[in-house]
Amino acid sequence: MDCKSITSYNHIVMTTILAIETSCDETSAAVVKNGNEILSNIVATQVEFHKKYGGIVPEIASRKHIEVINPIIAEALEKAKVKLKDLGAVAVTYGPGLVGSLIVGLCAAKAIAYSLDLPLIGVNHLEGHIYANFLISNLKFQISFPFICLLVSGGHTMLILVKDHGNYQVLGQTRDDAAGEAFDKVARFLKLGYPGGPIIDKLAKEGDPKAVAFTRPMLGQGYDFSFSGIKTAVVNYSNKTQGTATHLDFARRCPELAEGFSRRFLANLAASFQQAIVDVLVEKSIQAAQEYKCKTIALAGGVSANSLLRKDLKEKAEAKGFGVQIPSLHLCTDNAAMVGCAGYYHLKQKRTSDFKLQAVASLKLVGYNVTL
After folding, report:
1. Is 367 within a domain?
2. pLDDT digit of tens for each residue in the chain (372 aa)?
């Protein structure tokens, strides 16, 4: 990211930030004050447009962003009771994500910042998820450094040592499928619907997590992750189970009537699959906190909305003496408030972006002082 000093700006108070997030299929705009006070956070989702395809179609996503970006920004300003002249800066996600989607938000942010002579702040989407943990109702609370952040989403699964604002060390990441991606693929195979994470989470509550003994991949092998194998294990188990096809079809067509084995089969499979993934995520997070002598483990990303992950991480980490910070559900999925929060800390460090800033689809986690 090209940076420049903000000393050339004449704004005395630069604490009210308009933030824009369009990295994937949510169009979001927010107004954030002082880095942790959310004045508004508007999110327009595209789930209904992508459901029939079983996943996100990039071309559809970028077109939908174009359709709603201006009304969403206007709604965010109106709800915050803030006028354009009251803004101190504009923060925007510039990667990673779908390049067409990123460009829409980036162009809107550039236009507003340029026309008002405001600082433009490019924010890494992954960094934004980390900073969702600073958006809490108790304004006196400050999460202490260093801390471990488990970032789990549809595209990323990472363990990050957060040493300070903008100072990150990536301890490990997925070598293949991300956790959220595995949830979606398993749900697609079982024809349960999209997005897969919430569906499996709900169905798993009816099942026995010990029904199927899935392997916990890469436990005791550092901090990297691998979830493609467990996804394949679900497919193989389903194919080898006698009468599975018939029972799956019946359960999908008539879930309200799918009593007995068919419904139990799906629920047990979902519960066992979900438990295996959560066990790996929680265990590695606790190991990292112990090794790096951190007092707190923070959760971030869309999969952090998973009820079992939230419950098990809190219970098991706190039992070992660690504090656990988990964002509110509405801040787990993609939203602009987290981008505004991260942007605030960029601004405090006098780091802003040049108007030549480009969308970077495969952007790595970058900060002011990054260790990989």
Report:
1. no
2. 444 433 334 343 458 999 999 999 999 999 999 998 999 999 999 888 888 888 899 899 999 999 999 999 999 999 999 999 999 999 999 999 999 999 999 999 999 999 999 999 999 999 999 999 999 654 444 688 999 999 999 889 999 999 999 999 999 999 999 999 999 999 998 888 889 999 999 999 999 999 999 999 898 889 999 999 999 999 899 888 754 555 555 455 555 444 444 778 899 999 999 999 999 999 999 999 999 999 999 999 999 999 999 999 999 999 999 999 999 999 999 999 999 999 999 999 899 999 999 999 999 997 665 454
Phi (first) and psi of residue 45, to 5 degrees: -95, 155
The pairing of strands 147-152 and 323-325 is unpaired
**Alpha helix locations (H) across 26-124?**
47-50, 58-80, 99-116
Number of Cβ within a 10 Å radius of residue 274: 27
Q: What is the pTM of this model?
A: 0.89
In a shared domain, residues 201 and 173:
yes
Do 235 and 120 belong to one domain? no
Cis ω on the peptide bond leading into residue 96 (within 30° of 0)? yes
In a domain, 36, yes or no: yes
Take residue 341 and report the two structure tokens written for it. Answer: 């929060």
Total Cβ atoms within 10 A of residue 365: 20
Contact (Cβ atoms closer than 8 angstroms) between residue 276 and residue 164: no
Cα gap 218→281, rounded to integer Å: 10
